[in-house]
């Protein structure tokens, strides 16, 4: 039992470091551009990208910029990833015509808001529409609720995306990210 | 058009684009949807051209991603005023990243030429070069005469760091449409094959 408890402890520690593990996957997958509109759930990844001299980290004013930017990066021979929250998916819809029509690879990590223990109802409508909107524009979705699965899923999906010119989003459930803490 | 408060530009858009692409060497080009795509195709269907036929507001950002990936090559985006107006925030994103090899040229006729020549915000008086300056572009100019275009063409291949922005005041004409391929997969792969192998 002790041994089992010890393993669980180790497993939890590993899971808690999921952003670091995901960043290591970005590097091993040859990703050189990381573009983002911030979300608390992406904070660690953004921090790692900014600190990495071999990663172009680009802050966007709106998420659709990232769709076009990463298409340009691919034209120039580089792989990239877009980080955003679920509300940002709505901003991307028409720009995904570019991804779809030209079969550009697209890898995006979407942190979900508007669901698990969400305090702010304004997040709910786009949250409910996130997956269907992406799928309507030809982006395959992989939804995760368990931190332990994130890095391996990013690795598997990145291979599909960049080796096969596919568009895919990994939706990180709000339960996985953790309840947003509100203070006043 | 009576509500247009700025007078029309006078430059011929095809002459402007032909000058910008003269002796282009290793220059990489992205064109915004509509007439800029036709203007570039009218010069030459070059393998280092990527033509947008949609994705309005995305041309300058495609240029940014390309410029960051290929820092040793000049990257030029030629687009229209309406296309750039849809992606104004992108000018802020570009200015923050400061890609030295990126130039954004807006062919500004103050109108939405593809949809019936309705007046655009630049036609109503908005000055895109001032927006680019406020965002933090290294250089931002308005060009009304051909010598200015010739100077700009030299800058595209020069050493002065960008990003640079230029609004070229063209006449509101619709010359013959020279239509390049609309097969985005083909144009994408042609571009990468030309630049790569990756």
DSSP helix fraction of chain A = 40-55%
Strand order of the largest sheet of chain A: 2-1-3-4-6-5
Q: Which structural class best describes the helix and strand composition of chain B? A: alpha/beta
End-to-end C-alpha gap of chain A: 43 Å
Instruction: Give the neighbour order of strands across the main sheet of chain B.
Output: 2-1-3-4-8-7
Main sheet overview of chain B: 6 strands, parallel
User: What Rg of chain B is obtained from the alpha carbons, in whole angstroms?
Assistant: 15 Å
Largest interface chains and counts: A-B, 32 and 37 residues
Order of helices and strands of chain A: HHEHEHEHHEHEHEH
Q: Identify the CATH class of chain A.
A: Alpha Beta
Number of domains of chain B: 1
Q: What is the 3D shape of chain A? A: globular
Could you state the order of secondary-structure elements of chain B as H and E? Answer: HEHEHEHHEEEHEHEH
How many β strands of chain A by DSSP? 6
CATH topology type of chain B: Rossmann fold
Uncertain runs of chain A with pLDDT below 50, 5 residues or more?
1-8
Describe the structure.
The complex is a heterodimer of chains A (184) and B (198). Chain A is built from 9 helices and 6 strands, in the order ααβαβαβααβαβαβα. Chain A has helices at 2-16, 18-28, 43-51, 63-75, 86-89, 96-102, 124-136, 150-164, 174-177, and strands at residues 31-36, 56-59, 79-85, 106-111, 140-144, 167-172. In chain A, helix 2 (18-28) runs parallel beside helix 8. Chain B contains 8 helices and 8 strands, in the order H-E-H-E-H-E-H-H-E-E-E-H-E-H-E-H. In chain B, helix 1 crosses helix 2. Chain B is 38% helix and 18% strand. Chain B has a single domain (13-195), classed as Rossmann fold, CATH 3.40.50.970. By secondary structure, chain B is an alpha/beta fold. The interface between A and B is medium-sized, with 32 and 37 residues.
């Amino acid at each position: 039992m002790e041994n089992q408890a010890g393993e669980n402890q180790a497993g939890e520690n590993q899971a808690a470091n999921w952003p670091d593990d995901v960043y290591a996957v970005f590097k091993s997958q040859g990703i050189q551009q990381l573009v983002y509109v911030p979300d608390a759930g992406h904070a660690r990844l953004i921090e790692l990208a900014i600190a990495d001299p071999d990663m172009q980290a680009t802050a966007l004013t709106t998420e659709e910029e990232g769709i076009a930017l990463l298409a340009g990066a691919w034209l120039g021979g580089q792989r990239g990833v877009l980080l955003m929250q679920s509300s940002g998916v709505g901003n991307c819809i028409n720009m995904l015509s570019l991804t779809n029509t030209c079969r550009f690879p697209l890898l995006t990590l979407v942190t979900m808001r508007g669901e698990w223990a969400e305090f702010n109802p304004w997040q709910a409508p786009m949250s409910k529409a996130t997956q269907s909107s992406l799928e309507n524009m030809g982006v395959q979705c992989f939804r995760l609720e368990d931190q332990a699965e994130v890095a391996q899923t990013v690795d598997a999906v990145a291979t599909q995306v960049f080796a096969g010119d596919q568009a895919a989003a990994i939706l990180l459930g709000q339960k996985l990210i953790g309840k947003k803490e509100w203070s006043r | 058009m009576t509500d247009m408060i700025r007078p029309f530009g006078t430059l011929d858009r095809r002459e402007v684009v032909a000058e910008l692409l003269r002796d282009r060497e290793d220059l990489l080009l992205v064109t915004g949807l509509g007439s800029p795509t036709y203007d570039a195709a009218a010069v030459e269907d070059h393998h280092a051209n990527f033509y947008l036929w949609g994705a309005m507001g995305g041309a300058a950002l495609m240029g940014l991603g390309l410029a960051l990936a290929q820092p040793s090559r000049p990257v030029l985006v030629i687009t229209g005023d309406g296309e750039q107006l849809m992606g104004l925030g992108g000018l802020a994103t570009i200015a923050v990243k400061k890609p030295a090899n990126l130039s954004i040229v807006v062919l500004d006729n103050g109108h939405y030429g593809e949809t019936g020549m309705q007046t655009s915000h630049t036609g109503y008086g908005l000055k895109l070069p001032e927006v680019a300056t406020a965002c933090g572009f290294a250089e931002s100019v308005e060009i009304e005469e051909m010598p200015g275009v010739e100077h700009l063409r030299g800058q595209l291949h020069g050493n002065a760091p960008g990003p640079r922005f230029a609004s070229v005041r063209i006449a509101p004409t619709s010359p013959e449409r020279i239509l390049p391929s609309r097969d985005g997969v083909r144009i994408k792969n042609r571009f990468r094959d030309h630049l790569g192998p990756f």
